[in-house]
Amino acid sequence: MPRFFFHVTDALGRSADNEGTDLPSVEIAQREAVLLAAGELQCHAERVVESGVWGVQVADESGRTVYDFTASARLAS
């Protein structure tokens, strides 16, 4: 079963996932990334408001990014 790594990025930097998660497919990894984003944004909305950006990048075992979810926020001018 392939292993995927979920790296979280915000204005303060990147938190690398060094352990990874075994999942059956890229499609399931994409779904997990969206669920991770939804949970983080719900619990920690202030991170997006304060930093202006928050994201999770999913990488495969070779380090190649297979999915990128980014949320951004800014005041309208």
UniProtKB/TrEMBL annotation:
<feature type="domain" description="DUF6894">
    <location>
        <begin position="3"/>
        <end position="69"/>
    </location>
</feature>
<dbReference type="Pfam" id="PF21834">
    <property type="entry name" value="DUF6894"/>
</dbReference>
<dbReference type="InterPro" id="IPR054189">
    <property type="entry name" value="DUF6894"/>
</dbReference>
<protein>
    <recommendedName>
        <fullName>DUF6894 domain-containing protein</fullName>
    </recommendedName>
</protein>
